[in-house]
Amino acid sequence: MTDDPLVLRHDADGVATLTLNRPETRNALSGGMLRALLATFAALAGDETVRVVVLAGAGPAFCAGHDLKELRAADYAGAYVDALFADCAQLMQAIVHLPKPVIARVHGIATAAGAQLVASCDLAVAAEEARFATPGVNIGLFCSTPMVALSRNIAPKQAMEMLLTGEMIDAATALRFGLVNAVVPAAELVAHTAALAGRIAAKSPLTLAIGKEAFYRQREMDLAEAYAYTRGVMARNLEAEDAHEGIAAFLDKRAPSWCGR
After folding, report:
1. Is position 118 within any domain?
2. To 5 degrees, how large is the angle CA 6–CA 8–CA 11?
3. Where is the signal peptide (predicted)?
4. Exposed e or buried b for every residue in 164-189, given b needs 16+ CB within 10 A?
5. Same domain for 129 and 173?
6. Do 122 and 246 belong together in one domain?
7. Residue 4 pLDDT class (50, 70, 90 cuts)
8. pLDDT at residue 2, rounded to an integer
9. How many CA atoms lie within 13 A of 84 on its CB side?
10. Which pLDDT belongs to residue 1?
11. Taking all residues of the chain, what is their mean pLDDT, rounded to a whole number?
12. Among residues 57, 228, 233, 240, which one has the fewest Cβ atoms lying within 10 Å of its Cβ?
């Protein structure tokens, strides 16, 4: 153990880059790491200077999932396990509910709850050598909570293949499954992700927040309910100053100036 922060944060040009900082454990999600991430996302929710978040990992991997050594050291105590999995579930929901897009920047491995992190982010960019798995079945512990995010990202049979075999898939397969948006050479990973984050950060922060919330809410509805809900969202969105500015800028053939209202 070191005194280094478990989560590093770097802000630039409206983009906050969060780096999981336990490289010696391949950034395993210990109780401390989960609490640090929860605190960081809570702070980001109200930070008007940040428009996009990038989630990355230090060292040789993105995230290897839960810290099995910590679980065993706690003797799998019920209260400890309940609190750990509650914090993990809260983190994944905090990512979804954050009113700013979150992009996973994946290198090395993203396994078990690490794959869950990727699936919980709004977008994901992977290095060509990245690998993904939900390998709990191999150690007698089915990846039930990672399954929640995974099954909401990829087709059921592909999700079940990952969950039932526990085998690694490569980045190209993750792209084909829809788990990631792009696969790039490792040397281009940071620049590609930064460029994507920059393009999104240039949009109206209010519009991004409205759109992200609406996306996740409507997909749990039936078709008629979804259209009724999103009709209201668009009508309210049209009342915003940024919508008026964006339409005027488009018609005037100029760049918009967002105010976030």
Report:
1. yes
2. 160
3. none
4. eebeebebebbbebebbbebbeeeeb
5. yes
6. no
7. confident
8. 53
9. 22
10. 47
11. 97
12. 228
Q: Which two tokens stand for residue 149?
A: 């995010």
pTM: 0.96
From CA 187, how far away is CA 125, in angstroms rounded? 13
What element of type H or E holds 26? none
Per-residue pLDDT at 257 exceeds 80: yes
Whether the Cβ atoms of residue 48 and residue 10 lie closer than 8 Å to each other: no
CA angle 222, 210, 15 (to 5 degrees): 130
- The verdict on residue 94 lying in a domain is yes
Q: Which amino acid is at 8?
A: L
Specify whether the CB–CB gap between 101 and 122 falls below 8 A. yes
| Contact assessment for residue 125 and residue 80, using Cβ atoms and an 8 Å cutoff | no
Summarize pLDDT for 64-109 with one digit per residue, the tens. 999 999 999 999 999 999 999 999 999 999 999 999 999 999 999 9
Both 148 and 160 in one domain: the answer is yes
121 φ, ψ (degrees, to nearest 5): -70, 155
Helix-helix angle 78-97:205-218, to 10 degrees: 120
Kindly state whether residues 161 and 77 are assigned to the same domain. yes
Structural domain boundaries enclosing 155: 7-201
